[in-house]
Structure formats: structure tokens, C-alpha cells
Design a protein that fits this description.
Strand order of the largest sheet: 3-30-29-28-27
Strand content: 35-45%
Number of strands: 31
Organism: Maribacter sedimenticola
Shape: globular
Protein name: DUF4374 domain-containing protein
Distance between the termini: 39 Å
Length: 462
């Protein structure tokens, strides 16, 4: 049965046509600041020579590591982030980022602004942004706007790399098409035809807090794939190409058994796929397929694809051969000569990319698990590796400690400052540290201590 998401375009079109969407002035929610405690002008060099590093923690809901108790954020300078004598306690001293469950956070490139879209609940889909003032002080700025009429109350969104101007959120709704042969009440007589995937994409002006564009499309895979029961079941992680005229959206492909109309769990994994749209119009959808990697490209909580040196590099997950880093060329097709398999590079079996982030030099920090990962409180978790996109190499970072209760599946954010990449490490319910990896030398700096809370965990830096 179709979900009500299919009514979004009608509602969204009315909103766009009439301009009736209401927004909430930030005047009602700005945190008052005591003039005596305002940051003096003498600290201006901090903004020039450093940047804010915002640490995010996901509080436990009902079970350790579920992150459903809300999100707290706390900021320090990059100098303090690198100082192991500094203690950071976001769970007691942090700012509560509005969200019913784990907030979906992004930060400006300079670290001075945090963007948030609430996830689920009454406020799900609400976009807000905050000026980072240090510590647990985040001042709401600009207007609040809801993207729920376009993509629902639990949107999957990302900040595009266009100078902090635009965010993009997506959803997908699926409907199996059958020929009931005149017996609509008897599923055993139904003939499966194909599955339609209705995708919605909305772009959001992060500066002026307004909707830029919204489009909805119905996608069906090739005749052969569709007849076999394959369809796009989840999408996420929109990424702009270098030219800024195409938007790539990662996709997960699932399968139905055409004979029984039940979900199929044992099937051949197709080549990794990506949806390509014209940008900024969001029109003319096409689907491209890799012959190198197989599995999904939608990622989970962390950005899964990045533009580097004119191409887009994308991780895949669930590949029978272990995760790959895939390359999409400037002509908007997969580069099937770029073969970068992480099982081979790391010497493991079943590598699975949990999160990753490259610096401008093409070297990245990558979080991964594999078949040798221990089972912890939140399942089999993982390790960090230093990756070189040009050389197609990956080396495990031994200077970041491993703990089976370290939870990376919900990891959201890394900070890139020059050739350095900041990250958090800490097991569920246990204290941890910020670590800073120099991607040029491989040197690892153990930074500030992170104070944890029972059942909670750290989900990244911004």
C-alpha cells in the first residue's frame, strides 16, 4: 500500500505556489547572553587562527547505544580539542539540539555555524541554524522552517559542498505493481510486474531559510531487473558534481520474490547504483550502474560521497567482495577502471564502510568494520584507516584504540582542517578522546578527553 508521502508533492506545490509556509522568527528562541560574559573583541584572533570544534553526543533512550534520548553539542577551539588535559562533558554541559531522536547535524566549513534538522516526533523536519559561541552556548540565528511537507518528519538530508549555501533532503516511497488477473483478493493469482520507486528531492536555502526547489519522480529499474523483482528501496546522501550541474543521490537496491510477492533476502547483488538529476532544476533523473562495485551507495548517517579533483568518490556498503571506494567521472558515469577494494587494501574480509571523510589532498580517514570485528553492546563495530584515493591504498590506524563497545554505525561527522582530520573515539557509556590525524604524515594526536554518560555515545565532531 502506498504511504501518504505520495501526497507531499500536491501539498508542496500548493505551498510553493501560494507562499503560505509559516516560519518562526529566531527572536523568540535566541539565547540571552549576559553582556559581562560576552566574548571580548580581544579574542578575535581565535576566529582567524583557529576554528570551533563542536562535539556531538547521542544520549541513550531505552537501550545502551540507541541514541534515542536526544543529541547534545558542545564546542571548543581546535587548540583545546588537541589538548589531552582538557575535559569535555557535552552530556552535562552541552546544548540540546532540537530533535525527538538523534539530531541530523551539519556544520559550516569554518565551524562557526551548526545546521540542524530535527528527526521524528512533533518537530521532525524542522530546520534551524545556530551560531557557535563556545562551550554549550549556541545562538539560534535566522528563521526556522519545516521541510516535513516535502520529505516527511524523518528526513534524510545533507549539506551540499557549495559554500554553505544549500541543503538537500530526500525520501523514497515504493509500490509493487501486479496484475491481479481479475482476482484482487487472491494474492496467489497475482502476477508481479515491477516496482515503482517514487523519489522526492527538496533543496533548502541555508542562508535565508527557504525552500529552493522540490521535485518528485517515479523510477523503475531496467526491464530485466524489474521483472526479477529489483527496485530502489532507500536513497540518501545527495552530492554535487564538480561542475555544479548534477546532483548524485546514493541508492539501496532491494528485491521482491516475483512468485510470492514476499521480500527476498537471498539474491544476487546488483552493481552499485546512483541516481543522477540535473541541478538545480532536479529534473531528468537517470540511474547509473557500476561494474566494479556491487551493493548500496546510500550510506547511513555520515556523508557517503565527496567531490575531489573533478570527480566524485563514493563508498559502497553490503558488497559481497567487501566495500569499495567508487569513482564517478566528470561525464557523470562510473569510472570502471578505478578499482579500489578495501578487503584487498586492508587485508581483511567483509570490509564495510561505516563513515569516511577525505581532506583536500585526496587522503581520507575511514571508519570500517569487517568479519573479524568483535561483537559489542551495539553489534560488530570497527576501526579507522588512512586512505589515499590517488594511490588506492588503505592502512589501519593503530594509534586509535579499539573497543568492541565503540559505536560507529551512527557516526555522523569529521572535521577537516587543512590536512588534519578530527574525530571522536569512545565506547558506549565510557569516556573517550578526540583524535586528530595528519593525513600527510599519518601522525595521530590524542586530544581532549570526552566525558560520557551511561549508555550514551559520541557521534562525531563538526
Amino acid at each position: 500500500m502506498k504511504l501518504n508521502f505520495l501526497n507531499f508533492k500536491t501539498l508542496a506545490s500548493i505551498i510553493l505556489a501560494t507562499g503560505l509556509m509559516t516560519s518562526c522568527s529566531s527572536d523568540d528562541t535566541i539565547i540571552d547572553t549576559d553582556p559581562e560574559t560576552e566574548t571580548p573583541d580581544t579574542e578575535e584572533p581565535v576566529e582567524q587562527d583557529s576554528r570551533w570544534i563542536t562535539i556531538a553526543g547521542a544520549k541513550m533512550g531505552e537501550n545502551p547505544g540507541d541514541g534515542n534520548g536526544g543529541t547534545l553539542i558542545y564546542s571548543v577551539t581546535s587548540e583545546d580539542a588537541k589538548d589531552p588535559s582538557v575535559q569535555i562533558d557535552p552530556f552535562n554541559n552541552g546544548f540540546v539540539a532540537p530533535s525527538n531522536r538523534t539530531a541530523r547535524l551539519q556544520s559550516s566549513e569554518d565551524g562557526n555555524t551548526i545546521f540542524n534538522i530535527s528527526y521524528a516526533g512533533d518537530t521532525g523536519g524542522n530546520y534551524t541554524k545556530y551560531t557557535v559561541d563556545g562551550g554549550g552556548t549556541f545562538t539560534q540565528t535566522g528563521s526556522e522552517i519545516s521541510i516535513a511537507p516535502y520529505v516527511g518528519t524523518a528526513p534524510r538530508w545533507i549539506k551540499l559542498f557549495d559554500g554553505d549555501k544549500t541543503g538537500a533532503a530526500v525520501y523514497v516511497d515504493t509500490e509493487h505493481q501486479v496484475d491481479d488477473n481479475g482476482t484482487p483478493d487472491d494474492v496467489t493469482d497475482d502476477t508481479y510486474l515491477y516496482t515503482n520507486s517514487t523519489i522526492g528531492v527538496v533543496t533548502l536555502d541555508l542562508v535565508d531559510s527557504q525552500i529552493n526547489n522540490f521535485e518528485e519522480h517515479v523510477l523503475t529499474l531496467s526491464d530485466e531487473e524489474s521483472a526479477a523483482g529489483y527496485y530502489i528501496s532507500r536513497i540518501d546522501m545527495p552530492t554535487l558534481n564538480a561542475a555544479g550541474n548534477k546532483l548524485y543521490i546514493g541508492a539501496r537496491v532491494s528485491k521482491i520474490d516475483p512468485a510470492t510477492l514476499e521480500n527476498d533476502s537471498d539474491y544476487e547483488i546488483l552493481g552499485s547504483k546512483t541516481i543522477v538529476l540535473d541541478y538545480p532544476s532536479l529534473l531528468n533523473p537517470t540511474v547509473i550502474t557500476s561494474t566494479i562495485g556491487h551493493g548500496n551507495t546510500n550510506g547511513y548517517r555520515s556523508i557517503n560521497a565527496f567531490e575531489y579533483s573533478g570527480s566524485v568518490y563514493q563508498a559502497n556498503q553490503g558488497d559481497p567482495e567487501g566495500s569499495y571506494i567508487l569513482k564517478i567521472n566528470a561525464d557523470n558515469t562510473y569510472d570502471d577502471t578505478y578499482d579500489f577494494n578495501l578487503d584487498e587494501a586492508l587485508g581483511v574480509t567483509g570490509a564495510y564502510v561505516l563513515a569516511w571523510r577525505p581532506a583536500a589532498n585526496g587522503k581520507a580517514v575511514l571508519a570500517y568494520r569487517h568479519e573479524g570485528s568483535e561483537e559489542g553492546v551495539a553489534g560488530a563495530q570497527g576501526f579507522f584507516a588512512l586512505v589515499d584515493l590517488n594511490a588506492r591504498t588503505a592502512v589501519k590506524i593503530d594509534d586509535i584504540p579499539y573497543d568492541p563497545d565503540f559505536y560507529l554505525f551512527q557516526y555522523q561527522g569529521f572535521v577537516v582542517e587543512g590536512s588534519e582530520i578530527y574525530l571522536t573515539q569512545g565506547a558506549v557509556g565510557e569516556n573517550g578522546n578526540i583524535y586528530v590525524v595528519d593525513t600527510e604524515t599519518g601522525e595521530v594526536t590524542k586530544g581532549a578527553e570526552l566525558i560520557n554518560a551511561t549508555g550514551s555515545h559520541f557521534i562525531g565532531v563538526f
